[in-house]
């Protein structure tokens, strides 16, 4: 115990508080746009994050339409998507689906905190000041079955904002996944 944390600290890596996704025990974290607005102190992120599930087997990242709107993208009905490059994704149901792609840069945020500028709203802990968001990647957009099936509670489908964070993002930097007993997990990522 503590070996991973010590190595990450020695390497100057950033600690991302991971969340354990339901009984699947998959790892995820709070994802925001690389340009997410910060509070006046710079210590908090004012944007609403979405759940990004870490998938080391996915070659590219995907967000559902609800997460796309949180990233500032136009609604699904916008004709701009007809002009974008497409990728074909295969869902957990085995069916292919064409997905538009657009270059998106993402970052992370921490736990919810009371907004310092507006006490009636919540914000989220900002990454450390030396953190640089991941470089933009051609991210796919679409409501793949994995979002509703895997993230649901077993009785009802998940309908919230979510994404799959694939190797196009994860391979940009060194990543260490800390696991262990219980639900407490961490993800350590190189700063640059």
Give a short summary of the structure.
The protein has 192 residues and is mainly β.
What does this structure look like?
Strands 1, 2, 4, 5, 6, 7, 8, 11, 12, 13 and 14 form an 11-stranded mixed beta sheet that branches. Strands 3-10-9 form a 3-stranded antiparallel beta sheet, with no helix packed on it. It is globular. The model has no long low-confidence stretch (mean pLDDT 88). It has helices at 3-10, 65-70, 145-150, 167-170; strands at 14-21, 26-33, 44-45, 50-54, 62-63, 86-90, 96-104, 106-108, 112-114, 122-125, 137-141, 162-165, 175-178, 185-189. With 192 residues, it is mainly beta.
Give me some keywords for this one.
192 residues, 14 strands, mainly beta, three-stranded antiparallel sheet
Task: Report the oligomer.
Answer: single chain
- The averaged pLDDT comes out at 88
Radius of gyration equals 17 Å
Tell how many strands the DSSP assignment holds: 14
Unreliable stretches covering 5 or more consecutive residues: none
Explain the layout of strands and helices:
Layout: H1 3-10, E1 14-21, E2 26-33, E3 44-45, E4 50-54, E5 62-63, H2 65-70, E6 86-90, E7 96-104, E8 106-108, E9 112-114, E10 122-125, E11 137-141, H3 145-150, E12 162-165, H4 167-170, E13 175-178, E14 185-189
Parallel strand pairs: 4-12, 5-11
Antiparallel strand pairs: 1-2, 1-14, 2-4, 2-8, 3-10, 5-12, 6-7, 7-11, 9-10, 13-14
